[in-house]
């Protein structure tokens, strides 16, 4: 009976920690979904030329990359405007919906300007509707000693 109680307590603790971690996980408003295929020469070229530096770029910070195999596009979790027909295809998604796409890869000189045009279409973040309630004045009862 004691081991059952300890097991239940341990499970509760694990679930509590997992819930707290999930509650603190950042929600990505935008992401760049790359639909690719291992046999795609242009996908491999993108990975060689852009891939290593993309996560550190301003664009990569704003829209982190997520790779999805073209044959798994139905499970990508993005509402696509139309099916993906070729690789590589880069879909900029915001809150799970397609904002725009880049079909193909024409080289590093063209990729970032094309991506910049898509990023300009992103909706601005919604400001927090509740302003800070912090006061800069001291409570009046503390000043009674002044």
Regarding quaternary structure, how should these chains be classified?
A: single chain
Report the mean per-residue pLDDT as an integer. 78
What is the CATH class name of the domain at 30-119?
A: Alpha Beta
Helix/strand structural class = alpha+beta
Question: CATH fold name of the domain at 30-119, please?
Answer: Glutaredoxin
Provide the succession of SSEs. HEHHEEEH
The CATH superfamily title of the domain at 30-119: Glutaredoxin
How is this structure best described in words?
By secondary structure, this protein is an alpha+beta fold. It has a domain at 30-119: Glutaredoxin (3-Layer(aba) Sandwich). 34% of the residues lie in helices and 17% in strands. It is built from four helices and four strands. A hairpin with a 2-residue loop joins strand 3 (89-94) and strand 4 (97-103). The longest helix is centred in the N-terminal third of the chain and has 23 residues, at 2-24.
Question: What is this entry, summarized?
Answer:
The protein has 146 residues and is an alpha+beta fold. The chain has helices spanning 2-24, 41-49, 58-62, 108-119, and strands spanning 30-36, 65-69, 89-94, 97-103. The protein has a domain at 30-119: 3-Layer(aba) Sandwich (Glutaredoxin).
